[in-house]
Structures
1.
Amino acid sequence: MRRLIFGVLLFGLCASVIAKEIPIESFAKKRKYEDVQISPTGDYLAVEMHDENSRRVIAVLRTSDMELVSYLPPAGGTEPVNPVWVTDNSFISQLSITHGDLESPRLNGELVIMNADGSGRKMLTQNRRELLTSNRDRGPKNNLQGYSEVIHNLPSKPDKVLIKYFEFATTRRDKTPKVYELNINDGRVRRIAVAPSYWGEFILSPEGEITHSVGTDKDTFDVVVHSFVEKKWELTGRLSQHEEGTVPIASTLGAEEIILAEKSKDGPEKLYRYDLKGRKKKLIYSHGRVDHRGFLRDPVTGKPLAIHFEPGYPDVALLDSSHPITQAYVSLFHAFGGQRVEIISGSRDGRKLVIKVTADNEPGQFHLYDAESKELRYILASKPWLQGESLARSEAVEFEASDGRKIAGFLTRSEGGKGLLPLVVKPHGGPHGVRDYWEYDDDVQMLASRGFAVLQVNFRGSAGYGNAFETAGFHQWGDRVQKDIIEATRWAIESRNIDPDRICIFGASFGGYSALMSPILAPDLFRCAIGFAGVYDLELMWSDGDMPEYGSVLDYLEDAVGRDPTELARYSPARNAQKITVPVLLIHGREDERAPISQFDQMRRALRKAEKPVESLVVKGEGHGFYLLENRVAAYRKVLAFLESHIGERAP
């Protein structure tokens, strides 16, 4: 039997018995509240939220009584996201387009500004004429056609901000950012600088002056540091690439220091302070098991105060233990019993802080913390309709794979079940650049509420465990990656009260691929398979959908799967349908651009040709994942009915 290592929560892992069945709609509904940004004076909150039609809007609430003051609605097929306060009474939002539930909103490059009271709404950068607010409005006085984000509110120029700007590009090497000074009244811009290196980050003084740029040499891929002297760039430092690479992180410690993440050849990253003037680096942290997951920052200055990391459960490493915000954070972290605590925004004087708390059974709570009085005030819940419900708990687990590599994951179980539990294995999407965390998941909680245990596996190829672990999944999609999932399932049977005769695998995107590929390699392990928006023919990724449109994605495919037709066929479920011995359910959006409907057609056709049992649900108007509530509910009902018929209590 393989050795098991698992964490134990200090505040208790056992959940109470779920007394009543939670409606499917409660899991299918999107989070009502996503983000909360407090204004510089602390008088207003800009809240990114979903309206009754599941569209994103920005609502402005008065902090004192949480009353609605105004809101920024969707317009012209776009939705506002990522509000940033640029004056005491106005904020700028980026605009996005959403193609499906499995995709993050795609920023379309446009910026809109609005006052807290709803007045003064206008476009500051614009690609489309239909968003003009009136016939007299001729749009912003600039021709920016790319991605923009606010990087500094210039304190000495109240009507201007600095933005970082990328022209829309198709390849990695086109990514050379520029900095513009943007007039928030009329959209006029003045170019300040062009980064001297590819993917260059700009280092700013507290006053908003550019002091340095840190980026990558296009030819050698060394990290290069340039100083901005009299509006000209001077090369002042070079860090030669290690075999695995060094990456500048966009987090400054002031105008003279940055943090670098150095990728290790055989382990997770190491974080260094780098002195831009002295050209020296000093190790500040290395976890030994996982990469970092963001920073605790001073919300006013942006200075990193601590490092978030999650080997299983959330933890933190302090960089500045004497800072008042760090001390407040430590108290809050302990007060919330080890849940993930983030300080996501703060007033200019640092007194009012917005705190977000999440956990495996907590979609998200927002609190307002008064740093002076030490008072904590609850303000919003991401999914208020789930407050008070007994949700299942997730256990962080780790086992040793057959080749000796440690594989981590999470096992969620409903305490209401008796005897051996049916199991749904739920591999994540990606597969690279993504991992599962100890956090709330609609699919997991929906399944657990119906009595199924759920296993999530951070198989090799997942992000967050070091570059070597992630690249170990390259060219292994249909082999070692699936073996990690299969071996994790067998570990759960041996160690965690799982019924070996009632196991199904269900995944979306790459998880959908795994849901069809794992049963091919382990035909006797699973009783059914569900693929949602999956990729089933690897060769089609090179020609169909939106991936071939982007040079950077083609580079990724070259690294991840290659072009060898023999290997692509061997690792494609649609080319091996005759080896599938379990009933299959395929769910897909007809307008999916990432995993186009041709992937679904190819898989279903192959299963039917091989005379394998297959059910399907295809929804018009949906993309990569289902966006509308009624379609999400329909998909959940289809999944549950399928699971009940094959691994439920009445299954044969």
2.
Amino acid sequence: MSAADLAARAEQLVGVAPRRARRVAAAAVAAARGESDRQAEAAAWHAEALAAWTLGAMTEAVTASRRGVAAARRNGDPSRTAEARMTLAFLLHDRGDTAAALRQLDAAAADARGVVVGRVLHQRGLVLQRCGRDDDALAAYRAALPILRRGGDLTFQGRVHNNRGVLQAQRGLLRAAETELTEAHRIYAELGQDNLLADTVWNLGFVAARRGDAPAALARYDDADAIYRRHGVPNAELLLDRCELLLSVRLTAEARDTGTRAVGELGAAGMSTHLADGLLMLAQATLADGDPAAARGCALRAARLFTRQGRDRWALLARYVALRADERSGAPAPSLRRRAARMREELGAARWQAQALDCALIDARAALRLGQLTAARRALTGIGTARNRGPLELRVRAWHAAALLAEALDDPAGAARAVIAGLAIVDRQRAVVGATELRVYMAGHGDDLARLGVALACRSGAPAAVLDAAERWRAGSLRLVPVRPPDDVALAESLAALRRASAAVEAAALAGAAATTERADQHRLEQRVRELARRASGSGTRMPKPPAVDELATMLGERALVSLVVDAETLVAVTVAGDVATTSRLGPVGRMHRLAEAIRFAMRRLALQHGPTEPAAAALGRAAERLDGMLFGPLRTAIGDRPLVVVPLSPWHALPWTILPTCIGRTVTVAPSASLWARCTTATIAAARTRKPGRVALVAGPRLPGAVDEVARIAALYDGATVLTGAEATAEAALAAVDGAAVVHVAAHGRLRRDNPLFSALELADGPLTVYDLERLSAAPSLVVLSTCQSGVGTALGGGEILGLSSALFALGTTSIVATVVPVDDADTTEVMTALHRALRQGRTPAAALATVQARAAGGALTTTAASFVCYGAG
């Protein structure tokens, strides 16, 4: 094969197999020198430069490109020289030397002829686009396209459409962007250029992200990443867009990790232009993750890089992020006001409109801190567009500022309306996504607004207002039923593979092996499960309104509701009993948090028999008495001896409530929200009216002493129960038995994953049954009893949200759950669970049945084990 043929082959391989392209290009250079073919040598160096750049070897790419320019000039071929300079310009800009890049393009334009003129114009447009000179870039693209069409250059036509699509997306013209990118996708598919095709898939994901469709964006990013990986192509730039998307759904820790990885890869590759972009994105992720000092450092480093690259518009954006970090760090208000006002003008002039509006919000908040109401009102003039357009985070901050101003102007009704409007925006955005994980984390966008709403309501002193403010935000994701991911077969297969990998890790651990390979497989499969689950789109259904106090009073009957909220570090209780609702301020919440943790610690010590039991029992008694006095002392007149429905603070879902003196012997049910309790109660009443006997499913997991005996004793109480033990108790068999059952009992080891609560699991014969598995159920079981250690414990997150096994079941439609909140003794648990089911068979409700068992166990050997169980839901 001749040198020219080898060079042509290398250029063809760049977009398909870049590593192979480099090998062929090296052979072409050697052959060209042997044949004294300067034109082939220039073409070979061009292919080598592009392939090296594709693989992240920036220094080698620039060196190869310079050699290509030299070879083309020695050959006396102006068009080939122009193309070589064009490639060098692109690489120099990517390395951060914009001025040198533009000089190369000027020289290329002087040499270019025919279709090469169009290619040079495209390259100039790309450099100008990355410098923020959008209008000049569009003009270059417009001039390039007809020349490329006349010359029949499909590859560069695709590049023009692709880059113009990205530019239009950045300007907010999403329909135009999608049209451009779809055309680029068609061209690359026709040419069979996989890597370029992946670029358009990635950019279509970027458009979906800008539209607010996180599931579609994640799916596009995953598809693009799969193509890049298939060809061994690193793409740190894709990580930056993924980081931005993760921020939009408030997965801040994951976004920060992704941004850190991107910055590392870009720095190692010598891609200074993209490194500046990466530092800016990392600054935003770090700020969202609660580290303003580190965010400020990243932002200022990005600003310096942007300035050196001549990208002044982007340097301004980086300084804006530094300003936000300073505000979060509590910088002096006068300084913030001066900087925000100046930066608002600069950002507006640079067409960063959303960020300019945010500077107005920073100015207004600083003015409010100083008590300068007129200045705050003036700063907020004209920000109405920010409340209804732009990124979700900005819209929420705009409504928050409007609420603060209304509050400062002694307009509590106006402040409350602003809070409700801001939270409604977050609710609408959450309804677009189907994955529980995304819905839960997105709640964090509204935390500040929700706290302000509760504070305003508490100030009013009206119980109905306080309850409404709390319920509008509390555990909102449980009011939206999870949507099964579109690729359900792939998800099921990935979950099955994950169970096998987890079982292999467990087996290796039991054998004392390191299990390095097995853990890597487990991590990879967990990531795949998350990717598939996140693709689910929501129905867009509006969040149902929380029930009013009079509705709750009717449903409660003889029961009393105690709903707990926090206002200015003080615990506040709303009590509804009979037709009377009251509000009570109970005391410092921090002290009560410490007492609650002391109770759980003492219960764990007693259950696990760590150390002498007498001191632990005494400590438990003291902590329970003190917390009970602070919590229920002021409420005793209101609640009397009524059965209780408790809506606690998120961390207190894991509190063994019946260890508190007020709750001993009393029927108590715990609910994530009053809204969820009302929904579960309504469903329970409706099911009771049908009087249809339901199925019973009993499952015993492996390696749990007493599990098989426990299930056997319970099975004797039910006719025709489905019993799964030993090798039959697999995840798929359990899911089939549990689906739509009336009563489910699982005795198995449980595992709480605080790092990723949706991988919390029940250990079955073939591996873990995770929350992701439960979300595949077509019909939720009505009553679920989880006789597993800490099965009622979830991870408390923003927005009063809890992620774990129990919350997943409630989201699906389960009405009552009995679960443990501390470790339990296996033998004692069998006795307690058998007694519980015996009481259920006698017609008691789950909460009443558990109360009966706990009352009988009080003071005896089973006291601690019985008190470790809590009834959640309708009760």
